[in-house]
């Protein structure tokens, strides 16, 4: 499944990325493969989403979250 | 004697110190603490990224004062450029061509987010530049129970580290002291990147003037951004060949390097940073987010914030603006009375001084709007606005951060356009700038009220609805709808520089630091006065010349008659009639006649033509010019009399009143859409770094205005 499908409150681990450019950006920001991610909330229109990664909060569009393959834990 | 002690020794070149760090790491605060008001802002050459430089004087251990040139590089997460901001940091640090090359780099890191911040720091260590690390926000670090073993961290990174709380100044003195003691190169490489691509690294080091392995590696990854190669095409080709021969894949290399770097960082974090269990403490940021990004409260609070800003620049700013207006008027009439009369007097008072007044008048609104924007940014609230508004705004090609400038446009486009700096995406920023002047600003109000009072009856419809109020409201709505429509259209035309992405940190909420806000406001005012001000003065002098000078005997004789009339203190009615005639024979009058055929299809005559030209200074000038043309004279009653005279005007071709619904609406629509404002043009030129965008804006808004007026005139007549 992709990060876009994870519900607020759920946690997941990053598996892989389908967008090469965005992958580099996300990795720089600490969203590395194997990293634990918690979805905190969605913005009221349902997009973007706020996730917690390595102790800080990152906002990411649903379209961007769709490029991140994750596994729920 | 005392002075020479304070002054830096000028014969020694002062060292350049670059401040580098992630966004939200407190970099600007540290810059302000280091330099105080001793700073200036310009644009980096060729781009519209703000370049802040300043001076920091430190007494060294021998008691001598050393001076350092501090340059504040834009916030970046990595040396790999992904935004125009990051591209600047990349070229300053990695491009052999760049002359801003620092002697020392201070990396500022957010202590609560050390892992991600160390990533950038480790890249800079590997560039083999003297580096100092400042770990900021130690108060929050302690509050959260994070314990950092600085001694061992420093040893492992091979650089000096200073814990600090920049906003209160704790630890800053130690950092300044460290600058005066020679800052050594980092002890060792953080990550050996040469092993990833030995041939490429060695070859580049042989061809380009680069000494560090990582500098060469970065260059291989970002060769298209390196301006050093511009005049060295054969060298560039040689490197490109080496890269392709060795199968060097930039994307893969970058991903691999990022992983390896984070691996080392994770090891370091586990050895030198630990979390101490603290009693459950409230996480203010989370609690605030629950309210500020709530699906009801979030928007209500944002509306209240918008309303407050609007209130401030619409009404509060009025008092200082009136004061500035009155002071200049007073000074102008005093000046013209003490100086010998003549063309020079006229130029000084009605050209230059009027231009100056037209610039200074913007200061209150710029000050207020920027105070709000800076504080909202610094608290972290603006990132939340971006978060809750992104979906809605991107549909129209805009950004969550576009809303405050857009709504502020109802007061004045000038400060609003300056307020678009915080929009990261180049495309969304340009679109915001392009549509802001469509919002009905307060300078249109005098034009609207004058015309509405002529063409629309004030008697209420069905008891309570005032048609004049309705007309005015529809004009404001029209401006807003036009802005959104234009933005949606431009979405498909304007190209993004680089790639469009949102991925954005939601920083912890913070109490704003007032000196930072003050410095930012002073900075904006300075930039406006000196950059946009030049253009405004120039246009203002041209407009003065057009409206006050002319050729031919008729103009000269009128000029003489006016001089005599003034000297004899003739009846003001006669004098204003003479002035009206003089305006008709001035250059502006000639142009008015000249363009009449072009504007006739809109229902305008040469008199309106003159007003269109003079009101290019600012829209409200329309009313003043019409008063002069209709020799309405006597300023205090201007509006009444000019209104009466305009109502009495007969259109010779139709034999009916000229200012009927058709001409009136045509005129109001023209002012709703046309870019009749030299200050906006000046400020767009400054904010986009050239004449291209202001000219496009002038073109499309004029075309829109012409079409709207044309259609309205023909539908209504």
Number of E-state strands of chain B: 10
Fraction in beta strands of chain A: 35-45%
How many DSSP-defined strands of chain A? Answer: 5
Q: Helix segment count of chain B? A: 32
- What is the CATH topology classification name of chain A? SH3 type barrels
Quickly give the CATH architecture of the domain at 2-191 in chain B.
3-Layer(aba) Sandwich
Briefly summarize what is shown:
By secondary structure, chain A is of the alpha+beta class. The radius of gyration of chain A is 11 Å and the shape is globular.
Structure description:
The complex is a heterodimer of chains A (about 70) and B (about 725). With about 70 residues, chain A is of the alpha+beta class. Chain A is built from 2 helices and 5 strands. In chain A, strands 4-3-2-1-5 form a 5-stranded antiparallel β-sheet. In chain A, strand 2 and strand 3 form a beta hairpin. Chain B has about 725 residues and is α/β, with parallel strands linked by helices. Among the domains of chain B are: about 1-190, P-loop containing nucleotide triphosphate hydrolases (Rossmann fold, 3-Layer(aba) Sandwich), CATH 3.40.50; about 525-550 and about 585-715, no CATH class. Helix content of chain B is about 60%, strand content about 10%. Chain B has 32 helices and 10 strands. In chain B, helix 15 (about 345-360) runs antiparallel to helix 23, helix 21 (about 445-455) crosses helix 29 and helix 25 crosses helix 26 (about 585-600). The longest helix of chain B is centred in the C-terminal third of the chain and has 35 residues, at about 515-550. At the A-B interface, helix 1 and strand 4 of A face helix 4, helix 11, helix 17 and strand 10 of B.
């Amino acid at each position: 499944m992709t990060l876009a499908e994870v519900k607020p409150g759920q946690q997941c681990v990053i598996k892989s990325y389908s967008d090469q450019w965005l992958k580099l950006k996300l990795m720089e920001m600490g969203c590395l493969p194997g990293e634990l991610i918690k979805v905190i909330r969605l913005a009221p229109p349902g997009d973007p989403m706020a996730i917690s990664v390595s102790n800080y909060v990152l906002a990411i569009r649903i379209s961007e979250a769709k490029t991140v393959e994750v596994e729920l834990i | 004697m005392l002075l020479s002690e304070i002054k830096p020794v000028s014969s020694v070149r002062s060292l350049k110190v670059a401040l580098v760090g992630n966004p939200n790491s407190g970099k600007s605060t540290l810059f302000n603490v280091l330099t105080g008001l001793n700073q200036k802002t310009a644009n980096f050459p060729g781009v519209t990224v703000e370049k802040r430089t300043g001076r920091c004087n430190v007494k060294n251990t021998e008691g001598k004062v050393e001076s350092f040139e501090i340059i504040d590089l834009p916030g970046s997460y990595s040396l790999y450029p992904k935004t125009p901001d990051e591209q600047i940091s990349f070229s300053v640090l990695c491009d052999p061509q760049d002359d801003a090359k620092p002697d020392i780099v201070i990396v500022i890191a957010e202590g609560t987010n050390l892992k991600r911040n160390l990533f950038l720091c480790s890249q800079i260590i590997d560039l083999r530049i003297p580096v100092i690390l400042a770990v900021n926000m130690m108060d929050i670090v302690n509050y959260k129970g994070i314990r950092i073993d600085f001694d061992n961290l420093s040893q492992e990174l091979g650089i000096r580290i200073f814990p600090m709380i920049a906003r209160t100044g704790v630890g800053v003195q130690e950092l300044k002291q460290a600058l005066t003691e020679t800052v050594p190169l980092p002890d060792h490489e953080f990550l050996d990147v040469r092993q990833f691509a030995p041939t490429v690294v060695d070859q580049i080091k042989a061809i380009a003037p680069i000494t560090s392995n990582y500098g060469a590696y970065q260059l291989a990854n970002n060769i298209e951004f390196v301006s050093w190669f511009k005049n060295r095409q054969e060298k560039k080709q040689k490197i490109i060949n080496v890269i392709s021969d060795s199968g060097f894949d930039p994307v893969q290399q970058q991903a691999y390097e990022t992983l390896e770097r984070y691996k080392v960082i994770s090891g370091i974090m586990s050895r030198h940073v630990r979390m101490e269990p603290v009693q459950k403490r409230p996480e203010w940021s989370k609690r605030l987010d629950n309210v500020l990004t709530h699906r009801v409260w979030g928007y209500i609070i944002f509306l209240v914030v918008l309303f407050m800003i609007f209130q401030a620049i619409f009404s509060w700013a009025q008092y200082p603006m009136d004061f500035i207006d009155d002071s200049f008027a007073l000074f102008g009439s005093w000046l013209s009375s003490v100086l010998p009369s003549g063309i020079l007097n006229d130029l000084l008072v009605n050209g230059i001084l009027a231009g100056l007044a037209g610039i200074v008048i913007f200061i209150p609104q710029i000050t207020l709007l920027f105070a709000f924007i800076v504080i909202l940014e610094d608290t972290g609230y603006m990132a939340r606005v971006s978060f809750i508004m992104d979906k809605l705004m991107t549909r129209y090609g805009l950004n969550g951060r576009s809303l405050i400038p857009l709504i502020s446009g109802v007061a004045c486009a000038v400060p609003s356009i300056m307020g678009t700096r915080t929009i990261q995406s180049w495309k969304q920023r340009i679109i915001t700038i392009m549509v802001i002047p469509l919002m009905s600003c307060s300078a249109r109000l005098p034009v609207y009220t004058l015309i509405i009072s002529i063409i629309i009856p004030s008697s209420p419809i069905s008891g309570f609805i005032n048609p004049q109020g309705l007309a005015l409201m529809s004009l404001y709505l029209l401006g807003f709808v036009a802005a959104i429509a234009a933005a949606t259209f431009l979405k498909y035309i304007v190209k993004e520089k680089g790639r469009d992405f949102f991925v954005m940190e939601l920083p912890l909420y913070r109490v704003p630091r007032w000196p930072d806000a003050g410095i930012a406001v002073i900075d904006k005012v300075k930039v406006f006065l000196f950059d946009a001000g030049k253009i405004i003065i120039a246009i203002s002098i041209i407009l003065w010349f057009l409206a006050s000078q002319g050729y031919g005997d008729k103009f000269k004789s009128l000029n003489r008659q006016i001089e005599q009339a003034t000297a004899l203190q003739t009846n003001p009615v006669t004098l204003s009639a003479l002035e009206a005639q003089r305006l008709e024979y001035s250059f502006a009058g000639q142009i008015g006649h000249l363009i009449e055929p072009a504007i006739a299809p809109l229902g305008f005559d040469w008199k309106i033509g003159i007003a269109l030209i003079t009101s290019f200074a600012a829209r409200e000038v329309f009313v003043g010019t019409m008063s002069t043309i209709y020799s309405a004279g006597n300023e205090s009653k201007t509006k009444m009399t000019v209104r009466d005279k305009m109502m009495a005007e007969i259109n010779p071709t139709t034999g009916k009143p000229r200012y009927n619904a058709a001409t009136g609406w045509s005129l109001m629509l023209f002012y709703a859409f046309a870019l009749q404002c030299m200050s906006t043009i000046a400020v767009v030129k400054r904010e986009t770094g050239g004449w291209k965008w202001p000219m496009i804006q002038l073109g499309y808004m004029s075309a829109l205005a012409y079409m709207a007026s044309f259609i309205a005139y023909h539908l209504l007549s």
